[in-house]
Amino acid sequence: MKTVFYDFKRSFLRFSVILFIVIFAAIGIAVSYETYATNVSPNPYYFHDLNVIGVSIQKYNETEVIGYVFNNHGNPINNAQIIANGSSYRTNASGYFELNLPQFYFEPIAVSYNNQKIEFIPLPVFENGSKYLSAEGVVEGFSYGTQNNVQNITLKYAFVVINNNGKGTLILAIDNPNNQGVYVNFANYSSSFAIPNTSFKYVGNVTGYINFYHLQTPSSIEFLSVQVKSLGPYTTEYYPDGSAITSLVSGIIGVIGGFTFIFAAIMLYLAYILFSKPRDTGALKFILARPITRRELYINRYLGGVLTAIISSFLLTFLSYATLSILVSSSGILLPLDFPLILFVSTSAALIGFFSLVYMLPSFIKSGGEMLGISIFLFLLFQIGPTVIAGIIAFTTGHINEIIQIIYGSYYFSPLGAESFGIYYLELEYGTMPAVSSVHLPLVILSSIIWIAIPFIIGLIKFNKINI
Amino acid sequence: MDIVLLRKKEASKNVSWVPELPIFEQDATVLDYFIYLAGYYGIGKEEAKKKAEELFSLVGLQGREKDKLKNYSQGMKKRFALAVPLISDPNNFIFDEVLNGLDPQGIMFFRDLAVKLKKENKAILFSSHILTEVENIADKVIFIHKGKIIRQMSIEEIKNFIRTNIFRVVLGRIDGNVIKIAEKYGNPKLQGNIIFIENFNGDIPGLSSDLLNYNIIEMAKVEGNLEEVFFKLIGEQK
Questions:
Q1: B124 and B200 in one domain?
Q2: Residue B63 located in a structural domain
Q3: How far is A282 from chain B (nearest CA, A)?
Q4: For residue B26, which residues of chain A lie inside 8 Å, CB to CB?
């Protein structure tokens, strides 16, 4: 129906709407860029698609450097250029290189491939690479006890973990390969460091300077402990998509959160312009004298507002996504598409839910001023109410330690809750948010649908009966 | 009523309603709003633009299409309100107190339009407090008092209803004898320098020669009007 698009056009092509979209799109792009720049400027290789790991062995009269160059998926990069001590070398077809350098050579060595460049210093073990690697670490320790009749030998290793949708690879460079057993353990992020030794999984033995092991890698942020017997375990953070994605995603979430907060007020204003004001002034009477039923008019104008919410959310989330994608395109890793999708769906659902609620009001209240007053009250109530009420409930019932559960439970009772749930799921997937027991996806979907549908239907039924 | 509700869309196409105070969404431009409303008649943008050109010139709004509705005068708003339903070329028109608040040119436009539409066999429901205008336009008059229809009459019936037999003479000079003279011709009443003679016997030459010394300024038969009929009907006529 053409008139729907007219109502959409009249709601969308409004100075306030366009202004807010432009401002937030600019903020979205700026934050994407800022997030990128603060991470990248000091360490450009953080977002590259180039990584290196290896060992340097001090021999009589020379240093032998053995390294492996690989991309963010863990695949070898052949023909990468290595420049050390004024000479140029190339990796072989398997991504390996071997350099013979003067003894005690500790100058930076450059690895270049495809206009990207990283450096490393040929310490006994080394690794350097992008922030897309799920975990990394350099361990220099003493092995206590007896191994091959040699006591207290030093053992140094560097490792990286690459996650390819649950099928992980542990690459381990070790300066003293001696058939040691390699064990790993993943532990819940919120649990303590105390990891029982029994939960470590054996992944293989050390067979050379550079070793590869298959791992089952989790899809959430966890603690990873790597243990090369008989050293104690080394624990670090494990990011399924690398810490790069986590920092980028949390930057964008902040912007979108602010957008939803302010844009809910724009939805309130649109409900006023599209429905409340024309009803109050009497302009609806003339429109209703056209060949149109009340139901059609109600739905038409409602869809005008809904389309505005959808397109605004879409523009903002995908614009931020596109900006970031372009900025990090050199890394060879695609930003996960569910990131803008979840943000888009949850932002739209929140805005439409709130719009449904305030759009219902003019069916009951003729005065535009009163409608605006009540809408502003509802806006404030649902923006800050759930957290405050949850806090009071938690405090008065003595369930302070369950406050997070209670806060998330309260979001079911807010039309704007969908946004909080969307951010929750993103934080759960890409951030450090622990799972909250009161969040259940079916309930999240149900509450969003109810908040959108019920006020819409009540408003429609009432509008059909009132004296315009 | 139920049928009207059921077939509301169809009914709306057959009626043109021009309200006393047309209210639109003020921030829209006239042409834009016309195109929007045309959408409800199932007409696309391009066709609506053509229709707008044709209908705006018909109602005298040509050249003002780009204005915002809030900049329109009452008369222009009424012309716009008239132009919109003309999209579906309706056979029925409701002019609700349409003459209120109009300048003389606007009054003439709507009066002439009503007469023209009447000639084209269109039905016009024309409500007005300006009864002289109603007399000029209507074939049939419905008197409404306090929200109720108190009488429905054709113009012929009204003419018969208001036919009086009162003669009115305006004199330049009055004295005590003048009533006595007038009594020969009916039942006179004196109001200032005017004599109203009820049941006038029709002898105008006699009356005028008898009153020659009183400087006759004006004399004529009193004609009734709609207003009188209305007051008669509601029992408040003096």
A1: no
A2: yes
A3: 6
A4: 281, 283
| Closest residue in chain A to residue B17, using alpha carbons only | A289
Predicted local distance difference test score (pLDDT) of residue A40: 65
Q: What is the CATH number of the domain that holds B168?
A: 3.30.70.100
Question: Using CA atoms, how far apart are residues A216 and B201, in angstroms rounded to an integer?
Answer: 123
- Residue B193 phi/psi, 5-degree rounding, is -105, 20
Residues B101 and B182 in one domain: no
Question: Pick the residue with more confidence: A103 or B226?
Answer: A103
* B126-140: pLDDT as tens digits: 888 877 788 788 889
The predicted complex's ipTM stands at: 0.76
Joined together, the tokens standing for residue A53 give: 């790991």
Co-location of B110 and B206 in the same domain: no
CB-based contact B24 A286, cutoff 8 Å: yes
Residue B196 lies in a domain: yes
| Domain residue limits at B179 | 164-222
Q: Which helix (H) or strand (E) holds B154?
A: strand B148-154
How many domains does one find in chain B?
2
Q: CA nearest B20 in A: which residue? A: A286
Same domain membership, residue B103 and residue B17: yes
Of all helices (H) and strands (E), which one includes residue A89? strand A87-90
Provide the token pair at A447: 């509450």
Domain annotation covers residue B157: no
CB under 8 Å to A52, separation ≥6 — which residues?
A67, A68, A69, A70, A111, A118, A120, A126, A127, A128, A129
B-interface mutation test, from A2, A14, A288, A366, most B Cβ less than 10 A away: A2
* Interface mutation vs chain B, best among A286, A292, A295, most B CBs within 10 Å: A286
User: What is the rounded distance in angstroms from the CA atom of residue B19 to the CA atom of residue A220?
Assistant: 66
Cα-based angle A74, A80, A82 (whole degrees, multiple of 5): 115
Report the C-alpha gap between B238 and B225 in whole angstroms.
14
Q: Which residues make beta-bridge pairs with A56? A: A65
Q: Are residues B114 and B30 in the same domain?
A: yes
Could you tell me which of A49, A84, A88 has the C-alpha nearest to residue A69? A49
Q: Could you say which residues of chain A have pLDDT below 50?
A: 1
Q: Do B8 and A278 touch (CB under 8 A)?
A: no
Pair (B131, B169) in one structural domain: no
CA distance A74 to A76: 7
Round to whole Å and give the CA distance between B61 and B168.
47
Cβ contact B216:B170 at 8 Å: yes
Q: Tell me, what's the pLDDT at A348?
A: 95
Q: What is the DSSP letter of B183?
A: G
Quote the minimal CA–CA distance from A260 to chain B in Å: 27
Comparing CA positions, the residue from A177, A160, A144 lying closest to residue A236 is A160
Judged by CB atoms closer than 8 Å, whether chains meet at B12 and A292 is answered as: yes
**Residue B61 is assigned to a structural domain of this protein:** yes
Question: Nearest by CB to B22, which of A6, A7, A286?
Answer: A286
Q: Are residues B70 and B122 in the same domain?
A: yes
